[in-house]
Structures are given as structure tokens and as C-alpha cells.
Write a structure and sequence with these properties.
The chain is mainly α. It has 5 helices and no strands. The radius of gyration is 17 Å and the shape is elongated. It starts with a helix and ends in a 53-residue tail after the last helix.
């Protein structure tokens, strides 16, 4: 948002936390500059808000229930190859009728159990 604002492409940073949260801020910015949602993952920088999502107890609890780590493999780790597909209301470019994470992985990882989360 700051870069778009500096370039004069948006007028409102939408950073007033009393009006915007992580979820509706991107939608508001995209209304000012259509396609801004795509820019989020093009810079290759994982925003702190997404790191905070990975650290949510409820998501970790779900991952542990699904993956059931054993005594010989007690840890669960986040994949360092993260991909963000921002899905905004009425944003056809973000609609994908299928989903295959294996395309992003090294073949050595194909037999590793993984959890993918789509978070609204």
C-alpha cells in the first residue's frame, strides 16, 4: 500500500485500524487500484500478519490432529515455499477451479504429509 501511495496510484493507505483489519484492508486497497491483491505475493516478502496466522494455536492444533506427529517425527514445520493467492470478492483472476500444491514442491517432498489451509 505504501508503494502504491508513494506512486500516486492510491489515495488512502487504509491503515486506520478502527476501520480496517487484515481481511478488509486488501479489498479496500484493491478497489482503489484493481489488481493490488496480486502485488501482495509478487514482492516475495511474507508479511508479519501472515506469520501471525501460522502461529495461531487453533491452526497448529488442526495440523497436529491431521498429521498426527509420532515420537520419531514429533515436529510440524511451515513450508518455506509459501504461496499466497489473495481471494477478494468478485475477483475472477483469483478463482482457480482446481488446486495442486505438488507443482510447487521438489519431488523429494511428494511423500511428506502436508496441510494446506485456505483462510478467508
Amino acid at each position: 500500500a505504501v508503494l502504491l501511495h508513494k506512486k500516486g496510484l492510491i489515495t488512502d493507505l487504509c491503515d486506520d485500524r478502527t476501520r480496517y483489519n487484515t481481511f478488509n484492508r486488501l479489498t479496500a486497497i484493491d478497489k482503489q487500484y484493481p489488481g493490488a491483491a496480486v502485488l501482495l505475493h509478487k514482492k516475495g516478502i511474507l508479511p508479519p500478519q501472515f506469520i501471525d496466522l501460522w502461529e495461531l494455536d487453533i491452526l497448529n492444533d488442526i495440523a497436529f490432529q491431521l498429521l498426527q506427529p509420532s515420537a520419531d517425527k514429533p515436529q510440524i514445520a511451515a513450508n518455506p515455499v509459501w504461496n499466497i493467492r489473495s481471494k477478494l470478492p468478485v475477483f475472477e483472476e483469483g478463482t482457480v477451479p482446481w488446486h495442486q500444491d505438488v507443482a510447487y514442491l521438489d519431488p523429494k517432498c511428494w511423500n511428506v504429509h502436508q496441510v494446506t489451509a485456505w483462510i478467508p
